[in-house]
Design a protein that fits this description.
This protein is mainly alpha-helical and about 170 residues long. The protein folds into 2 domains: about 90 residues, no CATH class; about 60 residues. Helix content is about 60%, strand content about 0%. α8 packs across α9. About 15% of the residues are buried.
Amino acid sequence: MMSGRPETLAEAMIPVAARLVVLVHGDGGRDEVAALLSELTPDEEWALFVVLAAMVNPDRSLGAALGWISWDEHGDPLAPGLAETRTIRDAAEGAEPGSPAGECVDEVVVERALAGVRVEANDAERLAVIEAAARDEDVSPTTVAMGLGLKANTTQKAIQRTRERSIHKEAS
């Protein structure tokens, strides 16, 4: 594999992480996973862990994140755990509570959408983009619409309503 600065190493681990994900999700088995992981240095393993963690939404339920698993580490059948409603964040010791909407906001997604780069945004991120655009008169609704994959007219109305709500709050 590669070594280098942490950013470079993390970027180099993205295809490895993606390969591991598809192997674990059914495109491979224990032997393929072992072969992939055996090629990694300790630094690459560490970077892989970080990249894999970055790929996971901590506010997703454990049941949704792991419910597709139908086997254990020995290949024996398991009952799916879809009933588990705690979030990954809830299961993490010492983690701060998530956003009130139950979804986290990735600031990179918000910044890219505001710049007109097409992103996949959750509801909380879309709201954060609209609120940021409402605060900044220099942000074009058309640019935001491109970033969020929405119609320009719809986006312009959402930004305008958000500005109006903000004005009413300030007046009260």
